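Weekly structure sync - notes
Attendees: PM, LS, DV (DV joined late)
Agenda: review two folding runs queued last week.

Item 1: First target. Sequence and structure tokens pasted below for the record.
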Amino acid sequence: MTKQEKIAAFDPNGLATTDQLFGLPFTYEESETAVLPVPWEVTVSYSAGTASGPRAVAEASLQVDLYDAFLKDAWKRGIFMLDQDQTLESTSNKYRLLAERHIDSLEKGKVDEQLLHSVNEVCAEMVERVKELCGNVLDEGKRLALLGGDHSTPLGYMQALAERHENYGILQIDAHADLRDAYEGFEFSHASIMFNALKIPQVSKLVQVGIRDYCEAENDIINNSNGRIATYFDRDLKASRYSGKTWKQQCEEIISQLPEKVYLSFDIDGLDPKLCPNTGTPVAGGFEVEEVLFLLETLVKSGKKIIGLDLNEVAPGEDEWDANVGARLLYRLCNIMAAGF
């Protein structure tokens, strides 16, 4: 069947009839957007489980209704999830145990340099592998959403975009600043993703939104960035709203800080933890889902373009609540990105 024939035969109001992402009937070639799962959590420093996020989100996605009021007939454009790289998953499982040994030693005041080097080396290989995989998808003219895994996973994607765009900004939705320099000795820590992203010359601006957990060194990096970093702390956003400023006004201010091309990096712990209680490092406070989606829809309406995105740190618990939220977010994020093309 051709894509048009599949569209004619598909019932978007019915039950999922395939086990593909969101129950959509399209092949990779027929889909405009690809989702790359990266099941990786080697350097997670609090609670593990995010490496299981991509598979859990895919399973929960079969319950997502396909109507999207922001983008007419969004499902017809096609979203296809690539197969998980089993080597990445098995490597993550192996080296997560070694990373835990390093953290235990660190807490006792000891450092096994050889062990730390081996963890850093395999994390660097992950970054290169993700860069390669993302580059292949981008070169085929598709939109790409990366689904982590912990927040270290999209660095290779950011690097791949830098080879294809002279300039872009990062919009980070997160509870954490992620500006640590090799947190716990891990060069590619999930807590260092934005520190590493800023090493990419093509990243002209980092706009952080919802930050509410950070250290003094990270605050110094923000203050000494000469405007390259603009951080909208959770407490400041809420204090302004308590004083009468609207979320719409705040969104317009946030968007004004961004260049024309924007990469979205979405750590699910940017949301209120009632929506993601099993994420690795939940922090009280944060956004409702529709607050973030309003920001992103406003961004697209402004004429700026989302050139790529990641959603990470979804960790399934004993039920599928976190994956349920993650799947619905992923669908809306892909559609908002598509609306700008």
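Item 2: Second target, run right after the first with the same settings.
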Amino acid sequence: MYYFALLLIPDEARPSDPDGRAAMLAAYQEFNARAATAIRAGDALAPSATGVRITGGPTAAIVTDGPFAEGAEVAAGYYIFEAENLDEALALARDIPAAAHGAVEIRPMVGWNAPTEPPGADWFALLLEPPANVTTPDTEEWETVMCAHAEFGKAAGDHILGGAPLHPPATATTVRVRDGNVLLTDGPFAEGAEVASGFYLLRCGDRDEAARIASMIPATSVELRQLAGMGVVLQAR
């Protein structure tokens, strides 16, 4: 099964000095090497100040420049894992460096439309919905939403590199590691007005084009962030 891992860190935990950045990069390279057989994709995200948030849906899109009003921990990257079960996915998550000073939210995915080539400095679009709007697979409401996304797929064409819907937020587990102790919390990392319902990886020429494509996505809100271009896409086992 595929699992989506959203990495969340305090703003101040993102190192600004060269030595700090080098140490952080080395820690992630070490994790990537250890977990290589399970990693199917992943990358860091550029700071939210360089991204946009799109609200109102495709018919009345409003684009707002970052940074966004977020909680104490902000999205800093993602992984896609292929794991036998949730326990295996959680064992991977606890070794992600972000878990030691922030949190990692693990959520089962409904399939995985994997890119056919490694993304570079492309775009990550996180889809957000009010909890009451989140649909459950194999329901009539789910099929309606999937039809809307199929239409988006036709309109966006080659701009879409990959993506997946996520199972409802009740299936999420948040992982933190403090003083060597693994702390697991059922549910998403924060209770808010909106929760993640899926994501797309988009290839666009610049931020304006990425925002235009993302505004077509059938979602209440879309947080659009550029990928750092350090990611990895591995073939399935």
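Discussion on item 2: The mean pLDDT is 89.
Action: LS to circulate a short write-up before next sync.
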